[in-house]
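Dear colleague,

Thank you for sharing your sequence with our group. We've completed the structure prediction you requested, and as agreed, I am returning the results in plain text so they can be pasted directly into your records. Please verify that the sequence below matches your submission; if there's any discrepancy, let me know and we will rerun it promptly.
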Amino acid sequence: MYFDSYENNVDVACLERLQSLAMIEKGSTEHKCRKLIDVCAIEYGLKCLKAGKASGLENLCKENILYAHPIIITYLTNLFNMILMRGFVPDNFGLGVTVPVVKDKLGDVTAASNYRPITLSPVICKICEYCIVHQYEHLLSSDTLQFVFKKNMSCLHAIFVLMQSVDYFVRNGSDVFMSSLDARKAFDRVNHVKLFDKLIDRGFLVC
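Please find the predicted structure tokens below.
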């Protein structure tokens, strides 16, 4: 890895101190301690970011981190581990620039419902999110019949499964009845209390 030398020279001792701090605070040397983020996870987070994207309020983008002095990776590693240890996220991580994007260019561009808000979040926050997802992705599995918000999946896969299922039953002489549900603004209406409960049930550690 590109940043391996910096981990060997600087980061290991710091991570060990963070690990010891976590164990002391939790009063246990077992797996109650949070899994630490290392420089390889930071590198993964950087690779997940797309280049040439607009910056947020902090006026930083992927290129600013990518071409900065490599020691910044050590600082980010320590910062993200402190966030996991303390259960505290900087307020600036919640700030962003919201840009309205037209959903249907052939529709009524004067209607507010025809716009989708896109938030430009701080690039450091994005890297942190990718690192956490990478560390705990084994706890984020979902049903095999879910096709959205999943890696390498899309609506085309859902359409294919639907068409194959309908074709199978029709060829075997059965009637096919379908119903559909359009959950309007479903993402904005998620019950966060239940969401957190489900994450905790799956094994996520409580800050």
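Summary note from our side: The longest helix spans residues 4-26.

Kind regards,
the structure core
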